[in-house]
Amino acid sequence: MDYLAIAVALVVVTASSVAIHLLARARRTQPGNLPPGSLGLPVIGQSLGLLRAMRGDGGSRWIQDRIDRYGPVSKLSLFGKPTVLLAGPAANKFLFFSGALSTRQPRSVQRILGEKSILDLHGADHRRVRGALLEFLRPDMLKAYVGRIDGEVRRHLEENWAGRATVTVLPLMKRLTFDIISALLFGLERGAVRDALAGDFVRMIEGMWAVPVNLPFTAFSRSLKASGRARRVLQGITREKKKASQAEEEQGNGKASRNSDLITCLLGLTDGHGERLLTDEEIVDNAMVALIAGHDTSSILMTFMVRHLANDDATLAAMVQEHEEIAKNKGDGEALTWEDLSKMKFTWRVAQETLRVVPPIFGNFRRALEDTEFDGYLIPKGWQVFWTANVTHMDASIFHEPAKFDPSRFETENQRASAAAPPCSFVAFGGGPRICPGIEFSRIETLVTMHHLVRQFRWKLCCKEDTFVRNPMPSPLLGLPVKIEHRASS
Question: What is the DSSP letter of 374?
Fold first, then answer.
């Protein structure tokens, strides 16, 4: 009987403890505190619905439908994790500046890009890695890259555009930006290794926003395999450059070539005690992120600029005039300079308006480091927080006639434009301390390429169907085939 009484007492105590814990937990996360919405089915949640909408050019509508139904704060489940969707300038400000949120990516992205990338680090580690990347992107170094990028663009247009009646824009722009990034970031010469790496990066990106199920027939599985191959190539490049740097330092020549490419630059950075600032793993993970950022975002931006200019004669004419004025002061074959780029103000406004209408990055994730609140709703520790650029970019209360393509929105002297774009509304490059560190690099790529393109060629769209899909980045139907002809005056 004594044993029975003890057993009963233990059961009662245990049950009471569990009940108290569950009640306390329920009180902390009672539905009244959580945002409205449903988490859907386990693991899958709303992931398939969002991905299906994005692949039919309906991602923005899908997000807006949720906002119309639940308001600017709602809960759902994306890529296997409970998620809070936030929308609007105030939400963007909270996302960009709150210390309660980190940028930890979904596990699918993490496994493809690595856990030591700038996308996943926070606090001191994020500041250390970001500072290292910005060392390579210093203004004095960016100025030196203009001539090298100019050479890559001229070579690309001569090899892939000149003498042709039709071209498909998106794959060519991807190849151009890949060649630029490979040369400047990795010091990787043209050849079989560069060609294989280009294909693997395309496959990597296709699986980044996929349901994280690692089965042979899934996009996620194909992406993981491509990531592994790309990582091995970059590890090999890092080892080779480390040996080359050590050999140069022994000969007293190390400093001369330390900034010749991103990997060499990162290998050469040291702290106050002479210790390397970044590990090999951090260098490889961030080289992969830098390649995706510099390769895909710029190529998509330029592709959609070509797409829009095909149907906007007035904007194209203004761009051509701007670039012809710059060319008047250049000698035959003379490369563009940093000073030339500073005169391309209208072209960059066209680029910004293209980014507003079709942002390359649909949205991004944060992770709650602790229980936090926004707009009266609880965001539990460990939950994802998701935001999208289109919510504010296409908001008529922020941008007048948002469906209209109007580069004058970005004239700094235009009072209407400044009033129409409050902080944290135009977020094509993110915002806050984590704003994309490669903005200026992307600007150089875009301006140099468009300078030579609009001066050398005219083009017309081959397809009347003017739609695009996202996977997860936007892609015009069939890659944007165009008919081209050479301008006689260039």
Answer: E
Residue 275 in any domain: the answer is yes
- Residue whose entry in the numeric block shows the structure tokens 């308006």: 353
Is 326:343 a contact under the CB 8 Å cutoff? yes
Residue 461 lies in a domain: yes
Number of Cβ atoms within 10 Å of the Cβ of 11: 10
Residue 212's SS3 state is coil
65 Cβ contact partners less than 8 Å away, ≥ 6 residues apart: none
Q: How many domains does the chain have?
A: 1
Nearest in space to 354 (alpha carbons), one of 308, 392, 323: 308
d(CA 289, CA 296): 11
Helical H segments across 98-165, by residue range: 107-113, 123-136, 139-160
- Categorise residue 428: left if φ over 0, alpha if ψ from -120 to 50, beta otherwise: alpha
55 SS3 class = coil
Question: Rounded to the nearest 5°, which phi and psi values hold at 281?
Answer: -60, -45
Tens of pLDDT, residue by residue over 434-443, are 787 788 999 9
Q: Which residues contact 289 (CB under 8 A, 6 or more apart)?
A: 113, 117, 118, 119
Can you give the CATH number for the domain in which 217 is found? Answer: 1.10.630.10
Does the pTM surpass 0.70? The reply is: yes
Could you read off the pLDDT of 221-267 as tens digits, one per residue?
999 999 999 999 999 989 988 888 777 776 766 554 556 788 888 88
3-state secondary structure of 276: strand
Cα→Cα distances 189→161, 239, 431, Å: 21, 16, 34
Q: Considering only CA atoms, which of 442, 469, 167 is closest in space to residue 306?
A: 167
- For β-strands 468-470 and 384-388, DSSP reports them as unpaired
Q: At what angle do helices 298-309 and 313-327 cross, to 10 degrees?
A: 110
With b meaning 16 or more CB within 10 Å and e meaning fewer, what string describes 291-330? bbbbbbbbbbbbbbbbbbbbeeeebbeebbebbeebbeee
Annotated binding site: 436
Q: Does a structural domain hold residue 407? A: yes
- Cα separation, 128 vs 106, whole angstroms: 22
Confirm whether 16 is domain-assigned.
no
Output the six-digit token pair for 8: 């009963």
Query: Residue positions in the annotated binding site for heme?
Result: 436
- Could you tell me the residue range of the domain that residue 204 belongs to? 35-486
Q: Are 301 and 156 in contact, with CB atoms under 8 Å apart? A: no
> Do the Cβ atoms of 191 and 92 come closer than 8 Å?
no
pLDDT digit string (tens) for 188-197?
A: 778 888 888 8
